[in-house]
Design a protein that fits this description.
The chain has 187 residues and is of the alpha+beta class. Among the domains are: 44-78; 130-185, SH3 type barrels (Roll). 50% of the residues lie in helices and 16% in strands. The chain contains three helices and six strands. The protein has a four-stranded antiparallel β-sheet, with no helix packed on it. The protein has a two-stranded antiparallel ribbon with strand order 2-3. The longest helix is centred in the N-terminal third of the chain and has 48 residues, at 28-75. The radius of gyration is 45 Å and the shape is flat. It starts with a helix and ends in a 5-residue tail after the last strand. The mean pLDDT is 78. Residues 1-19 form the signal peptide. Keywords: Coiled coil, Signal. Residues 45-109 form a coiled coil. This is SH3b domain-containing protein. It comes from Halarcobacter mediterraneus.
Length: 187
Amino acid sequence: MKKYLIIFILFISILSANTQTQTQKPSELELFLFKIGFEALLNDVDETKQKTDLNEEDIKELKQKVTLLMDEVYKEKTSLENKNNNEDIDKLKEEIKLLKKELIQFKNRNNIEIKEKKVFVPKKNSIKYKNYIVATNIANIYTLPNANSQKIDKVKRNTVLKIERCDRFGWCKFYQEEKYIQQFLLK
C-alpha cells in the first residue's frame, strides 16, 4: 500500500510538472520590453497627431491671410494683371528729362569736363611654356586636374613635356592642350 501511495504521489508530481512546462509564462524581461515598445508606439502616434493638427492650423491661418489679401486687392480695385500705364511712363520720362537738365546745370556751374572713356584692351601675349622632364618611371596624364578623372595616357621617364602652367594644387596643364599631369612627377 505504501508503494502505491508513493507511486501515486510521484505520478501526480510528474503530471503537475508537465502541465507547468506546457503553459510557459512570459519572462519579466519579455514583458518589460513589450511594455517599452508599446509605450514608444503610443508616443509616436501622439506626436504624429500633434504634427497633423499643427499643419492643419497653419493651413487654416494661411488661407485666412490669403482671403484677407485678396479682399484688400479687390477693395482698392487693383488687379494682379500687368497693364501698360502710359501716364506712369510719361511721368518717368519727364523725371528723367529733369534729372538730365539738372546734371547739365551742375556740370556748367562747377566747370566739370567730361573726358572720353578709353577702353583698355590688354595685348594678347603669346603664352609661354616651360619644358619639364618626367622624374618617375611612369606618369599618368589626366583629362581634368583631379586624380579621380579619366586617365588619357602614360608617359615614361625622361620624356620632355611642354607645360603651360602649374596651379597651387599641384596640377600642371599641357601647352595648348586640355591634359593635366601631377607636378610632383616632374623636374
